[in-house]
Amino acid sequence: MSASETSIGTPQRRRPDILPYIAGGLTIFVLLAFLIYPIVTTLANSFAPTGETFGIGTATLDNFQRFLTSSMYQKALVNTIVIGITVTVLATLVALPAAYFVARVEMPFKPLILSLSIIPLISPPFIGAYAWVVLFGRSGIFTYYLQEWFDLQMPPIYGYFGVILAMVLSHFTFVFLFVQGALVAVDPHLEESAKVMGASRLRVLLTVVLPLAIPPMLAGAMIVLIEALGEFGTPAILGGEVYVLSTLMYFQIHGYFNLNAASAIALVNVAITLVAILFLIRINKKRRFVTVGSTTRRAPLHTGLGVKIVANLYVWGLLAIALLPQAVVVFTSFAERWPGTVWPTRFGWGNYVYIFSRIVEPMQNSLILAAIATLACVVFGTLTGYVAERKSFAGKWALDLTIMLPFILPGIVTGVALLVTFNSGPIALSGTALIMVIGYFVRRIAYIYRSVVAAVAQIDPKMEEASTVAGATWGHTMHRITVPLIAPGILAGAIIVFTTLISEMSTTVMLYSARWKTVSIAIYERLETQETAAAAAIGSVTIAVTLLLVLAATRIIGKSMSELFS
């Protein structure tokens, strides 16, 4: 027998491919160290006496009893629930008509509408909230003219009215994008069949279109609810004497450095969030539809003059109101002298000159921290997303749940958990850049993870199998086949992660230090010292930088801003 025959007849033993095991081990380590361990530590410390670590013999309910004995705690709890529910309901009601009009009515400049709707999501929350004070505060511009011209008295901007108004107009975009995208993709045969059966246009809308919009509506409402329950910036500026759990946590950390009390508040916040989310999920499970068929044709658009006028007035009016804070921020940034009058008395570039040297380090910190966290999310999210979609193993549901858990936790809760866990002991990270990167990482990993899962699901596994049969290792197949195919999904998720982290506030406010101040902290500090115009200048620069980065990235991957966020 010849050598060639031997080589053909006897299959050669391939070296074991250890890369999948390395990826699996890395996944388990990260999940345990940065997700599960901090959550368990926070849970334990909530039962520890003030200033002490948890011990079986010293466990106490004192931190939770404050919700039964302290009026401040009780009011904060009630305020959080009321504001969260109200914002979610109003944001949904505001977004639904806009989503329907954009998806189903012939309107000009639809790409522009979708792009403009993204701006409230990437704007620094503090300065946007303060813009409402400029407009509707005691000496606000609108307040003055409403009183002077119409003798109308606006409700106080501080308190429930201001917090709910600002949150609704900054968060309705989530519902708008989700529902608009779903209505565009709906198979038109469903509505055509209803019309053939004799249903009127109104009946089709109520019995076919709106029911189909419920699942994406609930998905958007879930995100709005999570954001509203964990929002810190808006209540801190506009809350006045209306405290919520997020501001209560902030005071416990920065006022008393009471990590145990903050842990208890965080757990109560998490409990409220989970109950609300489970309720929405239960409703959504009862309404599952197949809305996308084999046809590539879209539903016909309404072209009547009346509906076009109503659609344009509503959509552009809503956008104008939602973008009003950003316009006020830019306007205020040029006010060099504003001595308590209705309008500034002098304009110029002085605020930008003043903040130029002062914004370099915070902006640099924001970009560095966001870039490192984004890179970590890309690497880890790609590995875990691929494993979750391609591999079958026991406990896959636990992997999905663990990665998505920080996404349903308010950002300030994640900050408290990491601060409690890594404040002391063998791994003390408080005050370092690393703890901020970890906080950003665990809060945004779900974006990359979900993008990769969706992208991998669209790839035929036979392509990877062919590479393996040809002798390629798992790592080589990932490098040459899988990653290039899912690269657009990865890049889209990375853009969302990076741009939203630049002005991130809820997690940052718990973890930052003097060395690692970000632009959102720089804005907050200027507002605390009444340097409103300087804060507006920093906010304007931040918005401009973020938009430029998004536009540049979208040009590279060939997707619009609205497609990235929808």
TrEMBL record:
InterPro entries: MetI-like, MetI-like_sf. One of its GO terms (biological process) is transmembrane transport. Keywords: Cell inner membrane, Cell membrane, Membrane, Transmembrane, Transmembrane helix, Transport. Residues 77-280, 363-553 form the ABC transmembrane type-1 domain. GO terms for cellular component: plasma membrane. Gene3D superfamilies: MetI-like. The chain crosses the membrane at residues 21-40, 76-100, 112-137, 157-183, 204-226, 259-281, 313-335, 367-387, 399-420, 426-442, 485-512, 532-553. Its main location: membrane. Belongs to the binding-protein-dependent transport system permease family. It holds the Pfam family BPD_transp_1. It is found in: Cell inner membrane; Cell membrane. It is a multi-pass membrane protein. This is Iron ABC transporter permease. It comes from Microvirga alba.
